[in-house]
Amino acid sequence: SLSAGLDLPGRFLFATLTLMTLIAILVFIEEAVYIYRKIPSSKRSIIIWINAAAPVISTTSCIGMWVPRSTMFTDFTAGIFFAIVIHKFLMMMIKECGGQKVLLRRFENGHFTITTGPCCCCCLCLPRVPITRQTLFWLKLGTFQFAVFRPVLIFLSIVLWTNGNYVLYNLSPKGPALWISCFIGALTLFALWAVGIMFRKVRILLKCKNIIPKFALYQFIVILNHLQTTIINIFATQKIIPCAPPLSSTARGSYIAQQLLIMEMFLITVISRVVYRRKYHDLEPPECVAEEAGDKKQTP
């Protein structure tokens, strides 16, 4: 077994990382109870989903660390969960603005700037898009498609893997792993683009609700769970991470990625508790803001 093959420092490391995962789960449960009691029901489930991202990734990484053969299933579970969280984060920004109707009234003559990352940050010639019910629908569809299609593609990958046709680290053009990974990558970019467009528009309005630290935590989870893991897996595939019997290069890369994620998600869970637990003042309705602006114009 894995624990029998570990030396004393290895056992201490595994025990410490497991303890960090358990603490992250307890912190999330305590935070979920607080949110359930203090947050209005319209925002409650969305905020709990977003706060659950880091502890869920930490838990799946811990299971994959102890049971190496389950790595594919744990990675897929974390991927499916975070695909849903990306959609929930976009919906949270809309909810924090007062809902779709209030957001449309507040930005009645406003425009979305679509020259933002990760898709079109260099395309400065693109026009600004007016904020309408239709453009909001397309933004929500941009994240919703990811929450729907990624689980479908992951299910297809598992079916092919059980049949021996899908090899995670085989990125040859003849294998399905490369094409499924590229398609998932394209869907991810579109979903992140939709969130970035919305954030760029509401970040000043929602500054009083700490939307910038919340978005930063969300971005850290994206980078660490996707980019960091992908880079480590590429290094392992290219044998840059050397093998250490009985572990191959790919197995060592997987261990390194999982152990880093456990530590990083533990920190993000603790920081999220501080950021989301603060009490915020509700935004004033757009009618009140317009009246205050009119009074200021009349005062001189």
Which features does this protein show?
Ostalpha/TMEM184C; transmembrane; OSTA protein; mainly alpha; two-stranded antiparallel ribbon; transmembrane helix; 2 strands
Characterization of the model:
It is found in: Membrane. It is a multi-pass membrane protein. This is OSTA protein. There is one protein chain. The protein has one domain. It starts with 7 loop residues before the first helix and ends with a helix. The relative contact order is 0.13. Helix 1 packs antiparallel against helix 2, helix 2 runs antiparallel to helix 8 and helix 5 runs antiparallel to helix 6. By secondary structure, it is mainly alpha-helical. The C terminus is likely disordered. The protein is globular. It contains nine helices and two strands.
Strand order of the largest sheet: 1-2
Number of domains: 1
Helix and strand content put the structural class at mainly alpha
Radius of gyration from the alpha-carbon trace, in angstroms: 22 Å
Query: Beta-sheet strand percentage?
Result: under 5%
Query: What is the molecular shape?
Result: globular
Helix content class: over 70%
- Please, what is the average pLDDT? 81
Largest beta-sheet characterization: 2 strands, antiparallel
Write the layout of secondary structure elements.
Elements (H helix, E strand, L loop, with lengths): L7 H31 L2 H26 L4 H26 L3 H7 L4 E2 L16 E2 L2 H30 L13 H27 L8 H27 L11 H29 L8 H13 L2
Helix pairs in contact: 1-2, 1-8, 2-3, 2-8, 3-5, 3-6, 5-6, 7-8
Summarize, please.
The chain has one domain. The chain is built from nine helices and two strands.
